[in-house]
Amino acid sequence: MNPRNLGNFFKSKFGLFVVFVLVLFSGIWMYGRHQAGEREVAKLAAQKGKKIELGQVKMPLNQGLESGVPQHVKPNASAGASADKETTGGGIVPFRPAAPAPIASAAVATAGSARTGSAPKPEPKPRKVRYASLLASYDAPAVRTERPETPAPEKFIPFGTLLKCKLVNTIDSANLETPVIAMLLEDVWQNGKKVIPANTLVHGTARSGRMRDRVTATGAWRFVWQDGRELVFNGVALDREYEHEIDGYGITDGSGGIKGRVMATDDLQELKMLASAALSGFAHGTQDRQQNALGTTITGSVSNGVREGVGDVFDLYAKRTLKDIEENGYYVRVAAGKEFYVYVLESVDPQKASIAGVKMRATPAAADEGAAQTPLQNPTKG
Predict the structure, then answer these.
(1) Would you give the end-to-end CA distance of the chain in angstroms?
(2) Cβ(214)–Cβ(332) under 8 Å?
(3) For the segment 299-339, what is each residue's pLDDT rounded down to a tens digit?
(4) Among 42, 136, 213, 233, which residue has the fewest nearby CB atoms (within 10 Å)?
(5) What's 265's DSSP letter?
(6) Is the per-residue pLDDT at 204 higher than 90?
(7) Taken in order 259, 260, 265, 267, is the CA torsion positive or negative?
(8) Where are the domains of the chain?
(9) Domain 162-263+332-367, CATH 2.40.128.260 — does that match?
(10) 155 near 189, Cβ under 8 Å?
């Protein structure tokens, strides 16, 4: 900006208005500083002229005291008068306990000894009786630290067992904590004994959200037998990629989560976002502009106002569509019939199963369940 343009700017109405505003605010600021200084000076002057009166002790501290030594009161006729005088003196009345009254037997003994002329015999001091402390004489019984050892269960599922399951319901990661209902495909054997029979229901919970194309299901799982027994255990859901036609496994077999299909809430949501952003930019770019001393500005007209409003509307719609795509745009759906594993994270004892929250005793039928020795199946087969 050259000096000529600067001079023309200050000669214009807008330049004069800017100068007037600067001068006005400078005067208001200087006046406020002056008023604040005057208030501070008045406050300091008021604090210097104020007197501080300290309290004084009007009564001596040793009035009515006997230098810490207890005194005996001699019985005389003027005791009542002196007591009244001390009470009405306005000071602290000293504590002077009266002497105990003489015992009649002691007086008789003194009179008898005076007649006989012999000295009175001193009374024997009472013998102190010492009692043993109850804490010293009490012997606490020894605490038994031995606990009965719990026998090892005959049948159990060890840590790290893979339970082959099949989904009964469809799972969507868009829903909050979708229940997972599955069924055991094979009997669970351990040491030649059948622990969990096939077709036993396995219930879990899938967490909301997705991890790529997987649905995660971790935490507490529950066995539900056909006779109503229930047993809770901890496990993690793993994907099972088994091809029955070739009798083999895929490369993602045993990976975390249950693999599903990525679904879109709206197939045209991305196209809507892109179209809204393009229309917003077009509306803002076609506004009329002019060059002045301050730079390029948008001229005030009805057409420019309409274009500005249309551009803001399309811009807001594009941002809203993008937010919906980030939050709820895509989700994973796992259809019913999908096979997966449940990786057991603890040892499971079927004898701890309960019915309706009540632990049941082991019955002969339950004890003999799966007792027959059958050859174990090949774990590499599906």
Answers:
(1) 83
(2) yes
(3) 777 777 877 888 888 788 778 877 776 667 678 889 999 99
(4) 136
(5) S
(6) yes
(7) positive
(8) 162-263+332-367, 266-291+303-328
(9) yes
(10) no
